[in-house]
């Protein structure tokens, strides 16, 4: 039986993940996942593709969802009251992958702290309450500031298979954290089983497959140091995971079709399978 063995959210896009034993599954994914975005002075989002130092910034959202703490090596932690946009109509214009979005700026203290840590002018913004983004794929849905779909699923079988190939080439294995999944599944014998799942019930929620996860240079960043540490895993993935959609695929993305509560240990039950 396939079960959930890890749940990870990423409150600030590009920053460190926050593991949990249990989480609320919302229409936009795990609670607080990619709710915040770091942007430059021009409003264009920052990611580990160009700012690998984001990887060592550790966010923490308070239990009541009203406060955010940011910490990073060599910097004093920053404690912020979250501006959710309900008390003010003020909005910032930001862009992500060329698409325009409206966001709620989190103020000068956050901007100053991030600018110092990243060494470049930066601001922190949040998804506004009226955010109505529609994501694409086989099962349309929504998300905050994720690259696309709300939930990224990866299995241990897929990672084990990849690392066996990397080891056969005489190189060091890579950890699961390189791929930034939301749900890690164990219990499948065959790698890439998540690619064929079309409908899933897990905990009190349901997921619908949208697309394969196409991997980028973020997988080359060591999340422990915030430094690029390639060429793995992309070198090995390029040898056996090239897909017609373009690039190399590893893991699968899903929309949320029913909200609920999830916990480590929940059964990951596939109710509908695809053929590829």
Alpha carbon gyration radius: 18 Å
Report the mean per-residue pLDDT as an integer: 96
Poorly predicted spans = none
Number of helices: 3
Secondary structure category: mainly beta
Helix content: 10-25%
Q: Biggest sheet, open or closed, and with what strands and sense?
A: 8 strands, mixed
Strand content: 35-45%
Largest sheet: spatial strand order: 2-1-13-12-18-15-14-20
> Number of DSSP strands?
20
CA(first)-CA(last) distance? 21 Å
Order of helices and strands: EEEEEEEEEEHEEHEEEEEHEEE
Overall morphology: globular
Describe the structure concisely.
This protein is mostly beta strands and 276 residues long.
Report on this model:
11% of the residues lie in helices and 38% in strands. The chain is built from 3 helices and 20 strands. It has helices at residues 108-118, 156-168, 234-240; strands at 3-9, 18-20, 22-26, 29-30, 36-40, 58-61, 67-72, 75-81, 92-96, 99-105, 122-126, 151-155, 183-186, 197-202, 205-214, 221-222, 227-228, 249-258, 260-263, 268-273. The protein has an 8-stranded mixed β-sheet with strand order 2-1-13-12-18-15-14-20. A 4-stranded antiparallel β-sheet has the order 5-11-10-9. The chain has a 3-stranded antiparallel β-sheet with strand order 4-3-19, with no helix packed on it. The protein is globular. 42% of the residues are buried.
List descriptors:
276 residues; mainly beta; 4-stranded antiparallel sheet; 3 helices; globular
């Amino acid at each position: 039986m396939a079960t959930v063995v890890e749940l990870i959210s990423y409150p600030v896009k590009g920053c460190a993940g926050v593991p949990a034993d249990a989480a609320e599954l919302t229409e936009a994914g795990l609670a607080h996942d990619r709710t915040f975005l770091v942007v430059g002075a021009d409003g264009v989002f920052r990611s580990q593709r160009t700012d690998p130092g984001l990887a060592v910034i550790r966010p923490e959202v308070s239990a009541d969802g009203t406060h955010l703490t940011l910490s990073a090596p060599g910097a004093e932690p920053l404690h912020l009251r979250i501006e959710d946009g309900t008390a003010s109509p003020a909005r910032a214009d930001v862009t992500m992958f060329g698409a325009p979005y409206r966001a709620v700026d989190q103020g000068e203290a956050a901007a100053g702290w991030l600018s110092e840590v990243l060494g470049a002018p930066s601001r922190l913004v949040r998804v506004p309450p009226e955010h109505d983004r529609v994501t694409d794929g086989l099962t349309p849905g929504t998300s905050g500031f994720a690259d696309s779909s709300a939930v990224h699923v990866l299995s241990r079988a897929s990672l084990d298979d990849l690392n066996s190939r990397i080891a056969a080439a005489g190189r060091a294995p890579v950890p699961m954290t390189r791929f930034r999944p939301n749900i890690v599944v164990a219990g499948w014998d065959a790698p890439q089983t998540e690619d064929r799942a079309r409908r899933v019930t897990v905990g009190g929620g349901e997921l619908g497959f949208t697309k394969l996860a196409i991997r980028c240079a973020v997988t080359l960043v060591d999340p422990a140091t915030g430094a690029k540490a390639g060429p793995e895993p992309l070198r090995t993935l390029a040898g056996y995971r090239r897909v017609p959609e373009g690039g190399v695929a590893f893991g699968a993305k899903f929309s949320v079709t029913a909200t609920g509560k999830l916990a480590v240990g929940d059964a990951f039950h596939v109710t509908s399978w695809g053929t590829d």
